[in-house]
Amino acid sequence: AWYLAAFQGRLDEAEPFSQRALELSTEYEGRRAPEVTEFLSLFPFHRAWMDHDLDSALTELDVLGRKASELRGEERTNQVWLVGAGYAYLGMITRAEEFNLKMATSSYEQGQWNRRSMRGLQLARLDEDQWVDVLEGNFIPSLGVAEVIRLALAGMLTEARELLESLEPVETWDELGLAKRRAAEGMLTLAEGNPVLAIPLLQEAVDVWRYAYLGGSFFRTCQALAQAHELNGRVENAFAVLEDASQQRPRAIYGKGGWIDMRFYTAELHRKYGREAAALEVEAELRTLLRLADLDTRWARELERLSQSTAQQVTPK
Predict the structure, then answer these.
(1) Quick one: how far is CA 251 from the chain centroid?
(2) What does the alpha-carbon distance between residue 5 and residue 38 come to, in Å, rounded to a whole number?
(3) How many beta carbons lie within 10 A of that of residue 209, not counting itself?
(4) Which residue of 1, 20, 168, 172 is 20 to 30 Å from 286, comparing CA positions?
(5) Nearest to 206 by CA among 262, 133, 164, 124
(6) Where are the alpha helices (DSSP H) in the chain?
(7) Helix axes 195-209, 216-231, angle to 10 degrees
(8) Are the C-beta atoms of 286 and 303 separated by less than 8 Å?
């Protein structure tokens, strides 16, 4: 089910495997890996999102939210996080915040876990150049390379470099972990103004993750790689990276926000280089996927900016 859904986009064929896996997971309750439950829980929501059916996607999240209250331990914590993230992927930040606060009953959920979740939702309201207001004095070193990426995007380059260099030696990392470190290093190097040095780091991460990683970091890394190519004067390379990554939408079982951010950048790049029809096509899909988004979110403001850019294109000079 995972392979068919994420890497092939063949959701009709994946569904019976997912249903059978759900039956088996019920039989083996107490001995199943949490990530199995996560995938099986997310599959109906992911399918509705892939079909641009936001009403069904929202219904699936509400069902998962009610089921989360019946779970215990790690499964419950994971499910609460998934539901909150699902609301956030639809741009419904207020609903995600309310859900997280309602479900935070254990000391862990009320402590660092909730701090991480609520801070992430707070960042979703802000443009990246405003992230420093949240992250300054409030970043979480234990998040490792993920925090390096946030600091780099916020422009906190000194803090990002110090955190990256404080992490455990490279030789202790497995292949996927090393790819994530390369991605963080590449994004930081790009933010420091060195696109030529950033490209091989980012490309290495993309190559490793192509058939192994389903999170938003894959799409953010593709976006950064495209930005590096553009800054290096290789615009066609940038478009090639973005086109390939846009076709990987089925793998956004986790990390839909990374895919959406990448598509916003794609629309902007199309318009920057006179590809108005392509920009409008991307913009139309984003409007469909974010029609439930709160008006005070970064994505809502980006949609408004896209609208203004379109208006400027058609207004006679």
Answers:
(1) 11
(2) 14
(3) 24
(4) 1
(5) 262
(6) 2, 11-27, 34-50, 54-68, 73-89, 93-103, 107-110, 112-125, 132-135, 145-153, 157-166, 175-191, 195-209, 216-231, 235-246, 256-272, 276-289, 298-314
(7) 150
(8) yes
In angstroms, rounded to a whole number, what is the distance separating the alpha carbons of residues 136 and 303? 27
The span from the CA of 43 to the CA of 55, in Å, is 15
Nearest Cα residue to 58 out of 69, 68, 44: 44
Instruction: Give me the sign of the Cα torsion angle 178, 184, 188, 191.
Output: positive
Look at residues 198, 185, 260, 271 and name the one whose alpha carbon lies nearest to residue 228.
Answer: 198
CA dihedral 176, 68, 125, 114 (to 10 degrees): -80
* DSSP E strand boundaries for the chain: none
Q: Give Cα 5 to chain centroid, integer Å.
A: 17
| Separation between Cα atoms, residue 26 and residue 24, nearest integer Å | 5
Q: What is the pTM of this model?
A: 0.88
* Residue appearing with tokens 């598509």: 263
Instruction: Return the DSSP state at 149.
Output: H
